[in-house]
Amino acid sequence: MTEPKSPAAGDRMPDPPDPAPEMADALRCAKTIILQVRSSPHGVRRDQLTALREFGSDLVNFCLQDLLDRDVLRSEPGDQSYSLSFSELQSIVDMVRRRELALVAQPELSELRNLCGESAVVSVDDGQAARNLAHVLGPHPMPVIDEFSTRFLYHCSASGKVVLAYATQERQDRLLNQPLTQRTEHTLRDRAALRLDLQETKRRGYSISDEEFSIGQRAVSAPIFGESGEVIGCITVAGPSYRIPHARIPALAEAVKAAARRITDQMIRPDLTPKRPTDISVLSEQASGECSAPKWSEERQSFLWIDRDDNQLWQSKLDGSSEQLHQFTTRPQGLVVTTADQVVALCGDRLINLSSGKESLMESPVQCAVPGTANDIWAVTERYGEKQLINLTLDGHASDHAVLPLGLGSITYCAVSGSIYLAVPDRGEILSYNLITRQLKQICQFSKASGRPAALAIDANWSLWVAFEQGWGLSKLSLNGQLLARYTLPLPHPTGLCFGGPNRDRLMVTSKRDGQPQEVLDHAPLAGHALLLQLD
């Protein structure tokens, strides 16, 4: 029997045999064809599909034509090879990107749930609705379920309204011209009112579903962007209306927007080539052997920092002007500006509240300190040969919290994650210690070639910044330890970092001059100065 002629790619296939092939065999044959074509970036010729002989030529021809008709494969007239269609390639790209988004978002979902005490979900647009990609349920006995159904209608769910708000005008018009299901009595079906809601969503950067998707439930959602500025998903917090009153929505929105920005930063795959600061201003009048402990005072709209050579507290405004505020009798080890803008110096075993003029004795000297969230202080001290994390009140009362690794350097605190971040310079480690779970874990470790992590800070978008001794640089990390950006520093030994300014986008860096070889100082004229950096 003569074998049927193999069709040329792009030609019409022969009519399928009668009766039609068994469905199971056809599916296996089609799957094998797709796997073969996917494995070859240059296409596959018919005579190369040796693995398909088990199916017979009629079935192979039938499946090839069907895959061409369904726009899974493509070919050019006269070309003898088959490749994946452009739509199929885009589907694969979308699938890979969604898998990556789910992996990147999972830690952020957990952090958001822990911070807000409510369920959190990441959704993507599947062309018909916003679809649940990944979620974590809240800690309460009866977490919200409806907001995490498989798909969310565009016009009444928080995630769906994000998709609508950032859609092209043509697509938004098309979707709004379709019938709008009345999910609840609060569902917006008036198209003019809905358009105003979408405009407000885009203006403020988040959407609200106020019992529109399900009675008794509210949700807040913010967009996640891709490399081209398109929305590739959104992250949502949802809970019952009695736990999410209207007054709480702005605070939840800030946390959701910050999580969306961090996920966006990781999805964009930033260029990690070290960049230079766009502007550097010198705040100190003259170089010091060591200046340190930079802090931002919201009330004063100024940076505060310590000149350890002369045991002086200085204030520097954003215009570059500086003045001395206080002369200490002993060398201060730390400086804190509390959430109530109380300025507190830690000198040996003394806690000096410079705002109130009160002074208290502590049980032991403090090595470094950061403000908490309740006008309190988190500090590191050494007792019985161990590093201890303690919580201090402004009257000097200390509560032990944890034993920390020896060799600890700088610390900083992040209210969103509820964690203290710690640098261990000799090991190049950055650790996080969660104050709720009391779990200590390593989030990243730098090569010795990067230098020793010497100073830490959290910016307005809840990213973690690290400055390096003998590394002449800064690194920006996600709270999970992923490297997001690098910057150069004109300093061999930074001692402190602090973000300030109205938008918290100006970075103050203090530095040390003492102990540096003259050859290094010859090339680092700013060593020992307090600097103000503008980063792009």
UniProtKB/TrEMBL annotation:
Pfam families: IclR_C (PF01614), SGL (PF08450). Residues 80-269 form the IclR-ED domain. GO terms for biological process: negative regulation of DNA-templated transcription. InterPro entries: 6-blade_b-propeller_TolB-like, GAF-like_dom_sf, HTH_MetabolicPath_Reg, SGL, SMP-30, Tscrpt_reg_IclR_C. Coiled coil: none annotated. GO terms for molecular function: DNA binding; DNA-binding transcription factor activity. Residues 1-23 are annotated as: Disordered. PANTHER family: HELIX-TURN-HELIX TRANSCRIPTIONAL REGULATOR, ICLR FAMILY (PTHR30136), HTH-TYPE TRANSCRIPTIONAL REPRESSOR ALLR (PTHR30136:SF24). This is Acetate operon repressor. The gene is iclR_4.
